[in-house]
Amino acid sequence: MVQLNTPSYQSFTYGDAFADVYDDWYTRIAEVSNVEGTVALISNLSEGLDVLELGVGTGRLALPIAAMGIPTSGVDSSSEMLKRLTARDTSGLVTTHLADMASWLPAGPFKVIFCAYNTFFNLVDADDQEKCLQLVRDRLTPDGLFILEAFVPSNYPLLPTRGVESRHMTDATVLNITIREPSTGLIRGQSIEIKETGVTLRPWRILIKAPDELDQVAARHGLKLVNRWQDWHQSPFTSSSDHHVSVYAPITV
């Protein structure tokens, strides 16, 4: 049995555990597979100026953005994720940094900083979420934008609660075991991949927040909401939306 676990959950635990299957598993999800719409909106809002992705992973978004000639940087706490990005980035288009996005971000300044597909929730300490948004504010240009994509907890039909669910892949069965702590918003999980060659444990955690809670945290660190859509195609956000793409700008005195 291969155990991709650590004695204590660290900022790199998720990335290191899922790096070898991330592109295969997650591109099956509609929100993740919408690369074209995501890249189009970010490139438009950046106006061709510097872009930074938080949780850049294997380069799913950063690489096509950089291929458009936009100066693109990415931060990730997982060396395993960044190894895969580097292998794909044969032209060296993306500047990568191995770092915890709650502790350090490159100086910039950046016209656009973005954090896609629930990646912000991978910061599983409330203080780390606060620290990250302060760093974001400090690294934006005066007219810069921070874009955050996440699900809406109250409307999201796939929100894990407690229990076991299974799904069948081409050559494996994956069991997902989850425990949710309603009082804190923390969800702890373990993906157990069962193959003929053995069993692999892939731990994960997320600390979820509703859109209005994210707005409050952002405001505490000098960021104001300027737009919110349901998706990267800028569909209207409504009370029944299960995802949001939120755009924040620096608060100026």
From TrEMBL:
Annotated Methyltransferase domain residues: 51-144
Matching SUPFAM superfamilies: S-adenosyl-L-methionine-dependent methyltransferases (SSF53335)
Membrane-spanning ranges: none
Pfam families: Methyltransf_25
Name of the protein: Methyltransferase domain-containing protein
Organism per entry: marine metagenome
